[in-house]
Design a protein that fits this description.
Blueprint: E1 2-7, H1 13-21, E2 38-43, H2 48-56, E3 60-62, E4 65-70, H3 84-88, E5 92-99, H4 114-146, H5 149-170, H6 182-189, E6 199-205, H7 213-223, E7 228-233, H8 235-242, H9 246-256, H10 262-274, E8 276-282, E9 286-293, H11 298-305, H12 307-311, E10 313-320, H13 321-327, H14 330-335, E11 340-342, E12 352-358
Helix pairs in contact: 1-8, 4-5
């Protein structure tokens, strides 16, 4: 799973990138020609894996992972066209908006206004989508002129969809908020429109606002919308804390009232916004977390492990992690009737500990 990091110049987006990945990317202007994007891979924190690994005497633990891609900005502050495709391939976008004051790095227009900056960045996303839709409309028009009778209906419907989505975008409605049926969304999925992607906003606050829940609540409320989630964190402080040894970081956090690490908060926000959960497998070789949509059928979850398991699916042996901990082990879970036999369509839940039985 990849998250694209975007934001205006001087927003602190690379600082936030470092904070949520424990990275050390250069935080100076990130718009030089030829610069490659910063990429950070984060292990999803999950203390359940350690407990299961000890129970199974596993040789290794494999966490689920989230990748963050901090693409360089364009010289004018917009989206760099060279990395547009990179952002299109991301499952969600992380928008960083500046909410801190720093005289040494003046804010755009000399005034700190995170809502203005967030809206301007979203306008850039919409402009990118409009260009893509315009090009698609032109291609459809050419195809229609040469299309056979059986092809015209599908092209005509797509042309109408493109026009409707484009008109709504021009009226300020991102694709994620437009009324579209499942078939229309499948068509648009092929376009990888940026305003269709779930959006996480990080308001990069100053150290003086750390620990003030009312600041975060006020900012998040002003950006609230379907498919959008927002938090506030101090990128500079989080970046510095992320470079400390764990015990020192915990001590400083407690003294500053900084709460849990930004890395943990962002991962949890990401999972909640995208509707994701982790199911768990464990054995002598490894204990691992697998990311799936909440409620995904068991047969699809099996495919996350291997296509052969999905193809030859027989049944899934499932117990909830909390039940397993309550009774003390798999033998006890089986005796208590907590180790269930589930079929292909069983809706998977967070914390399900699963053993898939299959035959190919």
């Amino acid at each position: 799973m990849a998250i694209g990091v975007i934001g205006l110049p001087q927003s602190g987006k690379t600082t936030v990138f470092n904070a949520v990945t424990r990275g050390r990317a250069e935080v100076a202007s990130f718009r030089a020609p030829g610069r490659q994007p910063n990429v950070g891979v984060v292990k999803v924190p999950d203390s359940r894996l350690d407990v299961l690994a000890e129970m199974s005497r596993s040789k290794r633990i494999v966490h689920a992972e989230v990748s963050y891609v901090d693409a360089p900005g364009a010289a004018d502050g917009g989206i760099d066209g060279a990395y547009l495709n990179t952002l299109q391939q991301c499952e969600a976008l992380l928008l960083v908006a500046r909410a801190f004051d720093d005289p040494s790095a003046p804010a755009p227009g000399g005034v700190v206004d995170p809502i203005r900056d967030a809206e301007e960045t979203q306008t850039e996303l919409a402009f990118s989508d409009l260009l893509l839709l315009e090009r698609r409309a032109e291609r459809i028009a050419k195809q229609l002129r040469a299309a056979k009778t059986g092809e015209r209906d599908a092209l005509t419907r797509e042309a109408a969809l493109v026009e409707r989505v484009r008109d709504a975008l021009e009226a300020g409605v991102p694709v994620r908020r437009q009324s579209l049926d499942a078939g229309e969304r499948r068509i648009l999925d092929n376009f990888q429109l940026l305003t269709a992607k779930p959006l996480m906003a990080v308001f990069d606050i100053g150290e003086e606002d750390v620990g003030k829940a009312e600041v975060e609540a006020a900012l998040a409320e002003r950006l609230a919308a379907p498919g959008v989630a927002a938090i506030a964190l101090c990128g500079k402080l989080e970046m510095e804390l992320a470079q400390m040894a764990p015990e020192d970081e915990a001590e400083f956090r407690a003294s500053l009232g900084a709460g849990e690490p930004g890395l943990d908060r962002m991962v949890r926000l990401c999972y909640r916004l995208l509707g994701l959960v982790s199911f768990l497998t464990t054995g002598e070789d490894e204990t691992r977390a697998w990311t799936i949509p909440d409620g995904a059928p068991a047969v699809e979850a099996a495919g996350k492990i291997h296509s052969d398991i999905q193809r030859g699916f027989i049944r899934a042996e499932v117990t909830a992690y909390d039940d397993l901990m309550r009774v003390g082990g798999f033998v006890e879970a089986r005796r208590a009737g907590l180790l269930r036999q589930e079929g292909k369509q069983y809706p998977m839940r967070d914390g399900d500990v699963v053993n898939f039985l299959f035959n190919v």
